[in-house]
Amino acid sequence: SPSLPEYFVVPSSLADQDLKLYSYSFIGRRMPLWSWNHPNGSALVRMANIKDVLQQRRIDQRICNAITRSHPLRSDVYKSDLDKCLPTIQDIQAAHIKLKQLCVNEPFEETEEKWLTSLENTRWLEYIR
């Protein structure tokens, strides 16, 4: 995939030939990417959706098993669909526009409480958190 780094971490129990085969199943060939590691062994792994719904469960299970085997405590994988819980780029852009309007166009003569409420209503701080 042209959008992935040249080198990335792969669980040792996942064979190279399986990895190559599975890469064609992911949208944009975006294989699971080990993004972050915690000293307790927890890891953050990002991956794109799998194209073929019929193959999704098998491939997903194989990759999750490989990640579990690589965890020092053999902890189960917790999956979260970020498409469902994160704002869209359009939401973020709209919040940024509201923030700019608040900071540039609104006089700060209003009470601090009202200004802070207006800031909260932009949702900017929620999104960047």
TrEMBL record:
InterPro entries: Myotubularin, Myotubularin-like_Pase_dom, Prot-tyrosine_phosphatase-like. GO terms for biological process: phosphatidylinositol dephosphorylation. Residues 1-129 form the Myotubularin phosphatase domain. It comes from the Eukaryota. One of its GO terms (cellular component) is membrane. SUPFAM superfamilies: (Phosphotyrosine protein) phosphatases II (SSF52799). Belongs to the protein-tyrosine phosphatase family. Non-receptor class myotubularin subfamily. This is MTMRA protein. The gene is Mtmr10.
